[in-house]
Amino acid sequence: MVRITRTPLLISVKLVRALLLAAGVILLAGYVASAEGTDITQLKADAQKGYSSQQIELAAAYFTGNGVTQDAKQAAYWYQKAAEAGDPEAENEIGFFYQAGIGVPVDHARALHWYQLASASGLIRAKVNLGVVYVWGLGVAKDEELAMQFFREAASKGEGAAASYLGDLYYFGIGVKQDKAAAETWYKTGTQLHDPVAAYNLATLFSVDVDHPHDLRKAEALLRPSADAGYIPAIHSLGLLMVNHPEFATSPQQGPSLLETAANAGYWKSSVVLGALARDGKGVPADSKAAYLHFRTAVLQGGEPAMSLVRYDLAALTKKLGTPQVEALDSDANTWYRQHRTPLLFVYKDGDRRQRFPASALAVSTAGLHAGQLLYVPAS
């Protein structure tokens, strides 16, 4: 049985600009609505005239490469233009760009400035980002108490992501005494506010947390809406649950299909599971070449943590397949990875805000717990 592992929202992350900018024209391809049919020339003209809505739309087009050559600097430029015109969503977005170093140098002071403006304009998501800033001391003195205040204020106004953050702070004991019961309460609050991350975190309590009673039916019921909202860890966990417990699947292909979705979004653990399924012929035809390709892809996605899990399998499959086939498969894996190298946290469906502010779909590499910073995740 392949195990589900806890992937908390409060994680170590390194906002690596090279990772974000090296994705090429395929960044978020398939996840953001196509700009086909959009009159880019007219859009640029309207943006130049100072229409903030068109500036935001043009920024999103540059960020995703939809209808124009992908250009993170141009994306940042047009988001900042809209922010300077007073659009709160754009203020929040350019703050995220400065925090992550997307198209602009990392500048925590500017990020804080834009978050504060957006928050003052009443944008609750910006208040969540301010909480993130103070949890980790990004350009300010670390102040976990103030961060908690921002999260509580945002949660009280219906922002489910803030409740999920509060849950993680209590779960891991950051700024407060560790209290998993309080964490569960906040995860429930976030779930009631339709936050997919809170629902996922609550599902992990019912499925993998060693200190919590397990109930796989409750876990499955929580994972489904989280996966439907596009949250990649939930898609992975739901697929894995269906593989291990076929009674939750409507067809034998449903679990592997979900794992494929997560793997294509950069989730290396899904690639490992897909390799194991192809190796063993579980739910899919036994296929040594497919198994090798999935394992090799997992290593490209996950580095040493992935290699530590698949090293034996790669060696055994290399011996079985022979050098010519392995070299061809390595080439295929490298080609695939070059086209899918930017990991995603969400696979977004159509929706106006998500099309206009696609950067919030990005995930970042994770290595070790709490060595980095808290990444903002938008509410559903």
Automatic annotation (TrEMBL):
Pfam families, sorted: Sel1
PANTHER family hit by this protein: ACTIVATOR OF C KINASE PROTEIN 1-RELATED, CHITIN SYNTHASE REGULATORY FACTOR 2-RELATED
Species: Tunturiibacter psychrotolerans
Protein name per Swiss-Prot or TrEMBL: Tetratricopeptide repeat protein
